[in-house]
């Protein structure tokens, strides 16, 4: 038994060595070295696996067109294009904003000095910025400016009234980050507990900020620090409620902050549809719960790569807050518009991710097919060139070494006169047949003679 096992093992080793030698002969180039490394290397795990610890199988709910899913912006960093980051509170926008100024591979990286929040992000060879964000231009349009403020403020801040007429072709590419509404709401409450007020927010809409009657304050003092969650939820003017929808919609469609312009139900419908439309047509948006997929889609959209990968933090201040089911349901009711927007955004985000991954796999498959065709053509070319060189170097030797060569030559020389003679006899015989009637015996003899000649010719051609 041991002897048989040793023989089997030896046979396997010899077969493996023989396969390696054959592969080296067939494909000696560096291209095949990469193929060998891929064949013997262990499979690399997908870095974009399910990040929210849910099932990796995704079933779409909305029907989006190819144009909605294909997000690839021809961003010209050396030209006049500008990326505008719409930063919604407590969505992880601070982390993403730092990635934009510190973690992108650029020809001219942003200059970030120690101890300063703002960085200088100039275009290559120009002294103007390509990024409009908190960490590059500061809060130039107000603290956490929304869609309504940014779309009217950014062109005037960047170009001014005079330059805006000179450069009408400038493209503004808006981007943002969204987060699960319940987690975002709890995170904002904890931030307010620590003394955050965002009083510097302008809330400019239709050329003016809201009045105190249109937007009352939820607290009488300087801040709302130490407020319990119930008090935070009880304030009907709290801007934390449905904040993501409000910041992504065009508020001029509903009369800004004047709640008496239209009924509440109609107002909510207009705001939600506006937020969905603006989000869908943005150059890019990411989700806090999917950091690696957010990185992937940004890189594919703008053709800009990050230096180091994003990190998914599953433990946050909001996740440490323990709430019961009743509080959970109430937060969802207070943010019912954000809940519907996030469901829509998550579906669109994951469909875009799947679409881009499929395109990437198809492109990789196409490149592999082209590589295989190239390697096959190279092998055939090398093989036939080797044969041609061998035949051109020793043509006489190849003929003398082939025992059938002289026989074939003699047979061909003898066969050509015979076939010529038989052909002339057949032609004369056919001519005589038209002048005189043939008897059956003669026809049979001629038929046999003709068949014999054809069989002989066919056997000779087959033998050759």
Summarize the entry for a quick read.
Helix content is 55%, strand content 5%.
Layout of SSEs?
Blueprint (H helix, E strand, L loop, with lengths): L1 H25 L3 H11 L25 H4 L12 E5 L6 H10 L8 E2 L6 E2 L10 E2 L14 H20 L5 E7 L2 H13 L35 H6 L8 H6 L15 H18 L2 E4 L3 H12 L22 H10 L1 H58 L1 H7 L1 H31 L6 H24 L1
Parallel strand pairs: 1-4, 1-5, 5-6
Antiparallel strand pairs: 2-3
Helix pairs in contact: 9-12
Walkthrough of the structure:
- Helix 9 packs parallel to helix 12 (336-393).
- Helix content is 55%, strand content 5%.
- It has a four-stranded parallel β-sheet with strand order 4-1-5-6, with helices on both faces.
- Mean pLDDT is 82; it is low at 33-43, 400-417 and 422-464.
- The chain has helices at residues 2-26, 30-40, 66-69, 93-102, 147-166, 181-193, 229-234, 243-248, 264-281, 291-302, 325-334, 336-393, 395-401, 403-433, 440-463, and strands at residues 82-86, 111-112, 119-120, 131-132, 172-178, 284-287.
- A hairpin with a 6-residue loop joins strand 2 (111-112) and strand 3 (119-120).
- The radius of gyration is 40 Å and the shape is elongated.
- It is mainly alpha-helical and 464 residues long.
- The chain contains 15 helices and six strands.
């Amino acid at each position: 038994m041991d002897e048989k096992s040793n023989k089997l093992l030896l046979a396997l080793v010899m077969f493996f060595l023989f396969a390696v030698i054959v592969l080296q002969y067939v494909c000696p180039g560096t291209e095949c070295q990469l193929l060998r490394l891929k064949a013997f290397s262990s499979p690399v795990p997908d870095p974009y696996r399910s990040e929210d610890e849910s099932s990796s199988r995704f079933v779409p709910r909305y029907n989006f067109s190819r144009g909605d899913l294909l997000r690839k912006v021809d961003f010209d960093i050396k030209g006049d294009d500008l990326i505008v980051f719409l930063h919604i509170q407590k969505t992880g926008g601070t982390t993403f904003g730092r990635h934009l100024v510190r973690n992108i591979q650029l020809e001219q990286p942003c200059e970030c000095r120690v101890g300063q929040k703002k960085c200088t992000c100039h275009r290559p060879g120009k002294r103007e910025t390509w990024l409009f964000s908190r960490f590059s231009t500061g809060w130039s349009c107000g603290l956490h400016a929304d869609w309504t403020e940014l779309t009217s403020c950014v062109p005037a801040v960047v170009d001014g009234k005079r330059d805006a007429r000179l450069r009408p072709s400038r493209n503004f590419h808006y981007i943002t980050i969204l987060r699960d509404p319940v987690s975002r709401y709890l995170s904002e409450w904890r931030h307010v507990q620590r003394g955050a007020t965002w009083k510097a927010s302008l809330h400019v809409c239709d050329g003016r900020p809201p009045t105190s009657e249109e937007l009352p304050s939820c607290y009488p003092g300087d801040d709302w620090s130490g407020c319990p969650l119930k008090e935070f939820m009880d304030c009907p003017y709290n801007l934390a409620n449905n904040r993501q929808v409000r910041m992504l919609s065009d508020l001029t469609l509903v009369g800004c902050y004047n709640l008496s312009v239209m009924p509440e139900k109609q107002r909510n419908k207009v705001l939600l549809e506006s937020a969905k439309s603006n989000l869908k047509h943005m150059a890019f948006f990411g989700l806090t719960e999917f950091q690696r997929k957010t990185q992937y889609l940004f890189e594919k959209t703008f053709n800009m790569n990050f230096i180091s990968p994003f990190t998914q933090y599953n433990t946050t201040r909001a996740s440490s807050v323990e709430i019961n089911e009743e509080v959970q349901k109430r937060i969802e009711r207070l943010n019912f518009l954000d809940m519907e927007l996030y469901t829509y955004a998550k579906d669109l985000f994951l469909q875009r991710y799947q679409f881009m991954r499929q395109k990437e796999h198809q492109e990789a498959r196409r490149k592999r097919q082209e590589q295989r065709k190239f390697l096959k053509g190279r092998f055939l070319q090398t093989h036939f060139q080797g044969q041609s060189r061998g035949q051109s170097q020793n043509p006489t030797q190849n003929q003398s070494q082939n025992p059938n060569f002289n026989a074939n030559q003699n047979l061909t020389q003898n066969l050509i006169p015979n076939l010529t003679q038989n052909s002339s006899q057949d032609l004369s015989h056919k001519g005589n047949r038209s002048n005189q009637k043939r008897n059956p015996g003669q026809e049979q003899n001629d038929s046999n003679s003709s068949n014999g000649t054809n069989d002989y010719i066919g056997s000779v051609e087959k033998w050759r």
